[in-house]
Amino acid sequence: MLLPLKKSILQKVTYTPKDSKPITLWIKRDDLLHPHISGNKYRKLKYNLEAAKEQNHNTILTFGGAFSNHIAASAAAGKELGFRTIGIIRGNELGGDIEKTLKKNPTLNFANKQGMQFKFIDRSSYRLKHTQKFIEALKNEFGSFYLVPEGGTNDLAVKGCEEILGDNESNFDYICSAIGTGGTISGIINSLKLHQKVLGFPALKGDFLSDEIKKYVHSTDNWQLLNDYHFGGFAKINPELVHFINDFSLQTGIQLDPIYTGKMLFGIIDLAKKGYFEDKVKILAIHTGGLQGISGMNQRLKNKNLPFIITNHD
Ligand SMILES: *Cc1c(COP(=O)(O)O)cnc(C)c1O
After folding, report:
1. Tens digit of pLDDT for each residue in 198-229?
2. Pocket perturbation via mutation, ligand 1, pick of 44, 68, 204, 260 by most ligand atoms within 8 A of CB
3. Which of 26, 112, 216, 262 has the most CB atoms around it within 10 Å of its CB?
4. Strand 223-225 to 283-286 pairing
5. Domain ranges of the chain
């Protein structure tokens, strides 16, 4: 194990929606694994960083959006383990006045403080980021590096996520996970017990996600995607979601993030209200972290005079 980790605990919570009876479920607190390399991002980086070390790389290069949890986690892991980190960030307008960008963007500001070096690129170049030509150009610019894909998903990331579920989780019937690129849920699916089923909650409009997941998993009959809880797309939110996140934290003491875990829990509660789950089933939701994204989201909400997420720090 590369990094000192806190234990991931199972927490039983009961949430009572305004218009419905109480709902009990368990939450696996992977958000507590590490203060800066939270949740699934630690799991996804773990074997990649080991491989990078084994291959004698001293530089990690990866990709992400301006508020990416993966960028923040990669920067922090690199700092802690002695890798140079390079972040290829979507949005070349951000590179114009870097001081201003860092002032306005808590994620990039954090990554910068961890020593991450940035290259900002426009959206059409960003789409070509995994082509051989683009990667060759990056090698010419930065020297040799270990490449971690956007969102951190590859075979080694899935292997790391196969460690999310252990013996303590074997008596749950449903395991719920938020989905971005699909790496995390793939690892969970691969480590299921026979009687267990996974419900995946895409954080984006992701018709392609089933096919992505099928690249990494061996089975097709014990998982299902619930596509009605993306709130319009990646990082799209509305006051109803913000209200839910605030109410959930008030009732349970657990902070959710607006991009992934908030949408997942909103979905689980909505399904429960609609009678989706059989009586007495035990539901486990994985808290994959992502709390670093709250302050960037709140800035945008406050600028628009919209309801924002209440945290312990406010
Ligand atoms: C990145 C992320 C996810 C999505 O993980 P994938 O492996 O990309 O599907 C879920 N939750 C949180 C908090 C994340 O940061």
Report:
1. 999 999 998 899 999 999 998 989 999 999 99
2. 260
3. 262
4. unpaired
5. 10-35+161-303, 39-152
